[in-house]
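For anyone still unconvinced, we reproduce a single protein record, the chain in one-letter code, the fold tokenised, and leave readers to judge:
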Amino acid sequence: MTVTFPKVTVLGAGTMGAGIAQVAAQAGSEVVLQDVTAELAERGRERIRAFLQKGVDKGKTTAAVRDETLARVATATDRAVACRAADLVVEAVPERLELKNELFREVAGAVAADCVLASNTSSLALSKVFLGVVGPERCVGMHFFNPVPLMKLLEIVRTDATSAATIERVTEYAVALGKEPILVVDSPGFASSRLGVCLGLEAIRMVEAGVASAEDIDKAMVLGYGHPMGPLRLTDLVGLDVRLAIADYLRRELDLPGFEAPALMRKMVADNQLGQKTGRGFYTW
């Protein structure tokens, strides 16, 4: 099988990193899934195995596809070694600008000159993520959505320095991954997070003001506007703390009052009501 990027390295073996590694392996790429410890890296590979096994159990895939996909996923802890032979490096580490920038500065010196460097950031301005990175023409945003193997959208984000050749290669690969790519100019929040967070914040303000219950607000968007999931349930799934951090970042960067986080949201985060991961948010999980 010929693929745009035969060798792919994914940095960060959490939920997003494991999902990205899975779809890359399913597309025929040889993948290295890297994290800071062997335990974390193996846990990421186990996420892939468990996801594929669910597909087998439901008759949506075969045991052969499961095994072939897993055979293409190796794990590593040494970042430089993991990236050395890569044609594409995708980072899926926590949303901290300094961490991402330091990572790419390091990786740029360990890979070939034509290796594409991609960030999975959902909101951070790529001009800052890639600041000072050697070879800015090969740097691009590849914003996947959770769960990666199921969500069709891939937001491709270009900076002022991203070359047309890089965009072409990444777009071709997106299609091979089974995604529907959209192209967005580098801006805080891009298209998806900027609109999605704004909608979620307004929904929280409505709960705060007693306009309607969380369930009914979500139902309005699902049944009235055709959204697959309401903004408050989605906030629970993403994590209130994650969305609060994005909202605060967008408020600072865009200077728009619509991104001012509601007091209710701050209180829920302070009370550890973060959504699905803590068992309680706008819903009980």
